Amino acid sequence: MRVGVLQGFLSRRYLAFWEAYLGALGVEVVRAPADPDPRLPYCLPVQGLLAQVEALKERGVDYLLLPDLQGGVESERGGGQCPWLLDLEAALLRYFPGLPPVLKVPAELSEKALGRAGEIGQILTQNPMLVGRALDRTKSLLKPPPPLKTPPGNVGVVAQPYLLEDEGFRQGVAEALARVDLFPYFPDQPPERLREEGARLLPVDLPTDRELLGMVHYLHRLGRVKALLLVVSYACPPIPGLLRKAARRLTKPHRLLTLGEDWEGELKALKREMEG
What is the pLDDT of residues 247-268, one digit of tens each? Predict the structure, then answer.
């Protein structure tokens, strides 16, 4: 039995447990890092996702493990207008008609995931005793990872959670800011705390939207943060609109920038505004 797993799209939050659990079941876990195809009419993260799924299909996996990014919440507002954010499985099925059977799991870990783990274990092994032993060996991993550490910068960086948890994205933003002598400060609070912050800013439905707005609210009220950088993926129109609404409430200097474009001119202007 071979189960393909994805890197990115919040994999930092859930994959450590599921890889360990699948291994304890005797299931082969298959990763397939692949280069994004810039010819595809999607944002960079989705290009990377599609390349991985294509590679996993070619390797002949029996199942594909996919995260439920929104915890079952549905909406037609904000990120709910982006199929990749609202229902990853449905979006992939439209793109890959021959997609392997999907095992959908919570994108965040908690004790509630034990039930889903038991169901998936039974699907894969048909052996309740093996499932019980595997759960006993791995349930200690059912806890959220701590937030990534952030350097003590002066520009707060806001982006969709799946972007902010990508080390390549963080490095790229830090390098762009460093070229104009600015330094990033990434949100350093757990997702549930950021969602609480987001609820104070604007009414939205999806957990990832609340988390995104929570970054804006949290970073804006930090004294060490002198300006905000709001970063979006070019092929996801609902997110820029959501951030523009949030930006109307900001008093600190800020810029809304698109991933993959040249930021130098805008960042130089932001620095001049910060220096007053």
Answer: 999 999 999 999 889 999 999 9
